[in-house]
Specification:
- By secondary structure, this protein is mostly helical.
- It has one domain.
- It has 6 helices and 2 strands, in the order αβααααβα.
- A two-stranded antiparallel ribbon has the order 1-2.
- It is globular, with a radius of gyration of 14 Å.
Length: 117
């Protein structure tokens, strides 16, 4: 349970950092960030696999780069559900999802893979 809460707060903090760096992403505060991370996790667990399967031909054709578009759409979808989290267009969603992925990889690298278990 402690690991889940640590991951939740770190991801919410990263989402707040991304919102401060990317023009077009706005978050009202920690509450919206935490709820946004929870919704984004739900969307990534249930909607993203269906989208990846449906877009598999174009993903193969673009050598996997289309997954960046899928990630941006998942962030945009999560923002449409979460009050206090706004994404103003596709390009901010694309940049924010790319930056969030890089920051999450950095945290995983620094803390090691065991912190997710």
């Amino acid at each position: 349970m402690a690991e889940f809460l640590l991951h939740l707060f770190l991801s919410a903090g990263l989402l707040l950092i991304v919102a401060s760096l990317v023009d077009g992403i706005a978050i009202k505060g920690w509450g919206s960030a935490i709820f946004g991370v929870l919704v984004l996790g739900f969307v990534n667990a249930f909607v993203r696999p269906v989208m990846v399967l449906l877009t598999l031909p174009i993903t193969v054709f673009t050598f996997g780069l289309f997954l960046l578009v899928v990630n941006a759409l998942m962030l945009w979808l999560a923002a449409s559900v979460v009050p206090g989290l706004r994404v103003r267009g596709f390009l901010p969603a694309l940049w924010a999802s790319l930056l969030l992925t890089i920051l999450n990889l950095g945290v995983s690298f620094l803390l090691g893979p065991a912190w997710l278990n």
